[in-house]
Amino acid sequence: MRRYLLNRLWQSLVTLVLATIVVFVGVRALPGDPALALAGEDRDPESLRAIRQQYGLDQSWLVQFWQFVSHAARGDLGQSIRTGAPVRGMILSALPVTIELSVLAILIAGVVGVGTGVVAAVRRGRPAEWAANALALLGLSVPHFWLGLMAILYLSVALGLFPASGFVPFFTNPIDNLHHLILPALILGTGLAAVIMRQTRSSMLDALGADYIRTAEAKGLSPRAVIGKHALRNSLIVVVTIVGLQLGALISGAVVTERIFALPGFGKLTVDAVFQRDYPVIQAVVLVTATAYIVINLLVDLLYSVIDPRIRVRGES
Amino acid sequence: MTRRLPLSLNRFTLSNRRRQAAGIGAAVIALALVGTACSPVEPAGNSNSSGGSQAPAGQDVFGEPADAAQVKQGGTLTVALSADPDKLDPTLSRSLYSRYVFHTMCEKLYDLGPDAKVVPQLATALPTISADGLSLTIPLKQGVKFADGGTFDSNAVKISLNRGLTLAGSARKSELGPITSIETPDPKTVVIKLSKPFAPLTAALADRAGMVLSPAAVAKLGANFSNAPVCVGPFKFASRVAQNSIKVVKDPQYYDAAKVHLDAIEYRIITDSSIRSANLKSGDAQVADSLSTQDTPALQKDDSVSVLQSQSLGYQGLTINIGNANGIGNPLKSLGTPIAKDPRVRQALALSIDRDALVKSLFGGLNTVACSPVSPKSEFTSDAAQVCPAHDPAKAKQLLADAGVTTPYKVEMVTSNNPDSLRLAQALQGMVKEGGFDLVIKPVEYAALLDQQDRGDFELLQLGWSGRVDPDANIFNFVGTTGSQNVSGYSSPDVDKLLTDARQSTDQAERVKLYGEVVTKLQQDDPIIYMYRQRNLTGVSKKLLGIQVYPDGVIRTAFAGFAK
Hints:
The complex is a heterodimer.
Chain A: H1 2-29, H2 34-39, H3 45-54, H4 61-73, H5 87-122, H6 127-141, H7 144-158, H8 174-208, H9 211-218, H10 223-260, H11 266-275, H12 279-307, H13 309-316
Chain B: H1 13-33, E1 76-81, H2 96-105, E2 110-112, E3 118-120, E4 128-129, E5 135-139, H3 154-166, H4 173-176, E6 179-186, E7 189-194, H5 201-204, H6 215-221, E8 235-241, E9 245-250, E10 264-269, H7 273-282, E11 287-288, H8 296-301, E12 305-311, E13 315-320, H9 338-341, H10 343-352, H11 355-363, E14 368-369, H12 393-402, E15 409-416, H13 419-433, E16 437-444, H14 446-455, E17 460-465, H15 472-479, H16 493-504, H17 508-525, E18 528-533, E19 535-541, E20 544-545, E21 548-549, E22 555-556, E23 561-562
Parallel strand pairs in B: 1-10, 1-11, 15-16, 15-17
Antiparallel strand pairs in B: 2-3, 4-5, 5-7, 6-7, 8-9, 9-10, 11-19, 12-19, 13-17, 13-18, 14-18, 20-23, 21-22
Helix pairs in contact in B: 1-11, 1-13, 10-12, 15-16, 16-17
């Protein structure tokens, strides 16, 4: 087990270093120069030189890379070229927004997706199934930005039910916080809800045809108990896996949603940093994301190996 | 200050396509309908007209100061900003949008009035200039405190100006010109000494170069001043969430605090213009800047919103690469193409553009035709500076033939890949065909466009300039041989001499005449083909009183308040 652990840790470290290099080089391979993007209208050769010097952009890539890595190892992610603010603070303030938005979106998608999925399976071949399928198709095919725009136009502008933009931190005012987040979370959750609905429906159909359901029915349990306690419970295992697989899609969806609703989240931070060629911010954002993915993967693998020793054995061989 | 984008960077594909389609359609119809003559440029004057959103096209609506009797005390104003300001440090700031925020928290020695004339702000009068033009004496207000309680005096002004001249990466250095020293004979007087006369200095002191920073904060934060800026102003900095919002709160120490009605102002960054106007309509924001010319007509019909308009002092145009083959800052070398070598080809292109149709069809008449870098709203305008050659495709074809160019003459135009720029490019493409040009559009992302521009990697490029009060700042850098932004690679001893004379003259009439002559020369050589001037369109909720926008485009929110 110890050898396996060390092996996995080593692999993770290599992955992290590779990710860091790819991002570092990738960002610099983009056309455009951060000094130019920052200087904008007021640029003249002297101020461009000064900006490059100030942010070490006049150094070789190797020196810049070493600076970045050595500072990052000490927890210093540098300063934004555009605003001069510390990048660490920017990330720490943006992360909770995206996490909260994603969690809310998963909750909404879960409730809506499982609900419609169950209805579609139980009412198979009836109008209810047709309606649920149509909804799922819409949810999958309509882009987030369009839904977002429509939601703002109808729910915010015309009906005034939800704010069209802005964010209030949860601990400042939980109700205001939810009021601001519910619409973006609903939009963000549509795609996921559709996936969950389709998955719930098909695994429910499988379950409903299984022997144990017939047994349960034969024992004289009410349909509600059969569907809720037996069929649904078994179907949900697959749904949970799907949610995990869809996390990446959720985060990329958050980029669009955050921009439309002006939410100070991670996605908006990333995209704006790319547009402004704010190297330190882009690098830090990717480093944090890569680290998160690697740590989660590592934990999952370790957990698997505890549950199923065969994985550990294969890993060691 | 960023080159003002013709529009916000980021919009979304579906609405883009729709808009593009609608725009092209409109352009085609308008082109078929509109005649060939180039109409005269909008007459000057007729500015400061009052309120109301139904102002006739082309008329400025600056807004009015709030009447104290009609305004409630307190409340938080939310302003939807189209772009994230950069550093909140007047010495280092380079974006137009930072000026919106500075306006509420960093007062300047001078300000601009609604007529684009310089007026005192922290100074008590315009500078007294010595006979040789080498010394400016500025009298200062007394009894003024910084937001941190420090006293405003001549020493603070000296520290701020010196910082602008010496801080690494200062964006103010060239604006401040040939300053040799700053003297402080007493706390209420500053004397600026110059090595040679520099007429644009007073106008520079009416922008960020003239903002006075708290010496205590400068000493404490140094180059990190932007993280917690402290100046003299109706509001003081409270907080900033990166790329999302900036909040300022009322400063009770402000010398005119009685005139400040709001408790706080939150600037919320919303880059998409249709979402900005949706926020304005829903009431989540009460002010929105840089409205799209496409959203404006609908907002003008909305009862709850009024639209302020002011003509920008800048321009949008086409830059032709004449001698920037090696990248800016390197020795000039012609590209060798007919359009780079022969002014007749450039004139032909200028004559192929129907500016009037462009402005009407693409911008609903909200923007105005421009044929020169001197705005008709500037005090330096003249008849010569506003001459506009008529749209004449037949003559354009003739010029191309005279130049020995086979038509259609293919030329590649690099442009920003945002929807408004693309619509403009497509309209131009259709227009110049008639004059014998085959315009190939090369859309690139904004940061890459700047890069290509400075490397000289283009034949023709579409960009604009947000504009300054003094014409020198709108011309010299772009067409002067040594101009830091002469991306055209244009070099004319005549133009250089006229510009240098104008820069060093303190005689207004003389400068007006010289700039007229510069325009005449530029229209012969056409290193930049000026096309139109944008209008600063600002949406304001009718619940709010006292929002004003002057020709510099800065939204003045500090003395606004909610209606009772």
